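New to this. Explain these tokens.
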Amino acid sequence: MPPTLSFAEVGTIVVGASVHVGRYEDYLRDWVKAHRADLERRPSFFFSVSLTSSIPKPENQAQVQSIVDRFIQETSWRPRKVALFAGALRYSQYNFVKRIIMRLIATSNGGPTDTSRDYEFTDWDAVARFAEEALAAASATAG
């Protein structure tokens, strides 16, 4: 949130984060903890992006859900809705070491291993539905 914007000016809040090495960045957890009261005074939504969400195996979905559950427990925040989205595998943007690590992870999960191209796994229709729900909450709050 820009430092010049006050929570008084905001009706609905959408927070999003990507999972890296099984967790969210510390700064996100710290920010949510610091602003939890503000987040809970209005409709707030949370979305999580991870490559693990792209693998339709129950154990992978459970793993992502446990990461979200741990975050919710650590912050004590109760968003109105939580959405889990698959991300992208952007081999072209990784340095050599990260590309090899991501390829190994993809191999172990049955994912794409051709490092000469990128892969998009995001269900953009699901993203649109989530955004529409947040927008509807914002409209109801403003009205």
Remarks:
- Strands lie at 13-18, 44-50, 81-86, 88-89, 119-120.
